[in-house]
Structures are given as C-alpha cells and as structure tokens.
Design brief:
It is built from ten helices and five strands; from the N terminus they run ααββαβααααααββα. By secondary structure, the protein is an alpha+beta fold.
C-alpha cells in the first residue's frame, strides 16, 4: 500500500510540473476572448461640421442661393403675388425693374443702420434710380428692441405724407440717441415741419399703421427671417435671401450676375 501511495504521489507531482511548464505557452497562443457589445442601440458618429459659408461671398447663379446658410429660405408664394402687398409709400424705383429687393429691417438695429447708410444709399443712386432695382422696405421690429416698433409707426406715418426718406435718415443717423431715451417723436420732429408733425402724430395714435407693420412682420416669418437686416432678392422667378449686412461691392457683383441672366 505504501508503494502505491508513493507512486501515485510521484505521478501527481510530475503532472503538476508539466502543467506549469506548458500551460503558459499555450495560453499565449490562444486568441483573445470576444467581448459582447453592450445592450442598446449603437451610437452613430457625428458627421464633421460643414465649413462656414462667408456672408460676403456671392453665389454662382442660378444654382446657389445668396444666403448665410447652404439652403434657400422658403418662398411663401410667387414673387408677383407677394409684391401685391407692397406699400407704395415705402417702395422705391420702378415696379417693372428686373430685380426686386425686399429689405426686412429694424430701425433700432445697428446692422440695419450700417446697411442703410452705406450699401443702400449707393444702391438707390446707381440701381434704383436707373430702373434696375425695385427696392421695398419691410418692417421687422425685433422684440428685444424697446423702441423699434414705435419708430416703425413714425416712419410709416411719415411715408403716408411722402416724407419717408428724411425720417428714415433721421432715425438711423440718430439711432444711438433715441434708443437710449426713447424720444422717437423728438427725432422725427427735428426733420419735419410743425404741421407735418401734427399729422404724423395723429396717424401714429390712430392705430391704422399697426396692421401694416404686422403684415410685413408676418411675411418675414413666412420667409423664415430670424435676423435683421435680411434682404430677399427676386429675379426671373427665382428668390435669393441674404441675412446680414452686404457691402456695396458684393451687392453690385451679385446684382450684375442677376441682371446678366437670360
């Protein structure tokens, strides 16, 4: 019995030694265990952000829109139908001009002031007066500007009396002053006679101008306007929106492209 036990112990010890020698090398040659994915949907990696489009880069016509985004804004209806709602007192140039521009603007907006005092003044002299562009002012008073709607009322009242140009100029050039004090009335009174100012005040208080401002604002919302100024160009059945201030050189280049289309 003792011999059997000794023999069994020797065999067991031999097996342990062999296992210690060979098992590590076998383990190294085995493939790594597969790891099951966690339950739930597999996340999709985000696409790299698109390169920003410069607001001062004109498009190649007619395929690309003139806008700060890659896609054009929605056109609520045909240009001809939209232009039936134009207030003639706030439109400049010939209705038969090949290019129509609708400018959605806020009198308290600094960017709108820049567009008015730089680009649009030259536009009036070189394109509107020449019968190439029909320019339409659209009121789009922003909610965060305390006095912009009041200014819009006064400007519309002055427009009813064919005094829109001096009043717009006064509002934009003195923007920093009246936006601090709220004295829109005094700003407008400085460029109108006493009798003209009495008529303007009567129109402002009468409430008839409010629906006209609301109509422009609603039209801007249909165009998905979300900042001022936003200019919407119409030419040969196509609509090209542009959000932001455009320099005169850029606008001139773009208008020449539009006018050269056949």
């Amino acid at each position: 019995m003792n011999r059997r036990r000794i023999l069994a112990a020797i065999i067991s010890l031999t097996l342990l030694v062999l296992g210690a020698l060979f098992l590590p090398s076998l383990h190294k040659n085995l493939p790594p265990p597969s790891i099951a994915p966690p339950p739930g949907p597999v996340p999709i990696s985000a696409a790299p952000p698109a390169a920003p489009v410069s607001a001062e880069q004109p498009p190649l016509l007619p395929s690309a829109p003139l806008a700060t985004e890659a896609a054009p804004l929605a056109t609520p209806q045909s240009a001809a139908a939209t232009l039936q709602d134009v207030d003639p007192h706030k439109a400049f140039g010939s209705k038969s001009a090949p290019v129509v521009m609708e400018v959605f603007s806020d009198y308290q907006c600094p960017a709108c002031k820049t567009l008015y005092t730089t680009t649009n003044r030259l536009l009036m002299d070189n394109y509107v007066s020449a019968g190439k562009v029909y320019l339409i002012h659209r009121d789009f008073p922003l909610a965060n500007h305390a006095y912009s709607r009041i200014a819009a009322r006064y400007a519309r009242a002055a427009a009813e009396m064919s005094k829109i140009e001096p009043v717009e100029q006064a509002l934009f050039q003195n923007q920093e002053k009246w936006e601090q004090t709220g004295d829109v009335d005094g700003t407008v009174a400085a460029v109108l006679s006493a009798s003209e100012m009495n008529k303007v005040r009567a129109l402002v208080k009468g409430g008839t101008l409010e629906p006209l401002i609301d109509k422009d604002f609603a039209l801007g919302q249909m165009y998905r306007v979300n900042q001022t100024p936003t200019t919407v160009f119409h030419c040969k059945g196509q609509t090209y929106p542009y959000a932001g201030v455009m320099t005169y050189d850029t606008m001139k280049q773009f208008l020449e492209q539009l006018l050269s289309q056949k």
